[in-house]
Design goal:
By secondary structure, this protein is an alpha+beta fold. The chain has 2 domains: 62 residues, no CATH class; 41 residues, no CATH class. It contains 3 helices and 5 strands. The protein has a 3-stranded antiparallel sheet with strand order 3-4-5. Strands 1-2 form a two-stranded antiparallel sheet. A hairpin with a 4-residue loop joins strand 3 and strand 4. The longest helix is centred in the C-terminal third of the chain and has 19 residues. It starts with 8 loop residues before the first strand and ends with a helix.
Length: 115
């Protein structure tokens, strides 16, 4: 098991979920791929129930209204936005593939196969 050590902390940061502002002490880590990791201690402090099957977290804070944080379907949204942008690019004949290789990686493959 790995160990992460950090001597940098940001006390009482505000995390906004579903228009609720919740405080958290954040350890600052040099990681890639994650903006924020909210741990079990923080989640349990706000009486959070994790519903993995439905991809949501239900907050049942004492003496407060229950609220739910549901995973946004960002992949589907991004795919739709990318499809629209790609159609526009093809229509105008604009070549921007090399400027954003990670974004257009799969698209390049599919365009080459269809050509």
């Amino acid at each position: 098991m790995g160990v992460i050590i950090s001597d940098r902390i940001c006390k009482d940061c505000i995390v906004e979920l579903c228009n609720w502002k919740l405080a958290v002490d954040m350890l600052i880590l040099d990681t890639k791929g994650y903006d924020v990791i909210l741990g079990m201690t923080w989640l349990s402090g706000y009486y959070a129930v994790i519903d993995c099957r439905n991809k949501k977290i239900i907050f049942q804070i004492l003496h407060q209204l229950e609220f739910k944080f549901e995973r946004e379907h960002t992949f589907a949204k991004r795919k739709t936005q990318l499809a629209r942008a790609t159609a526009e690019v093809k229509k105008k004949g604009i070549l921007i593939w090399n400027e954003f290789p990670d974004i257009f990686k799969n698209l390049r493959t599919s365009t080459r196969q269809s050509s």
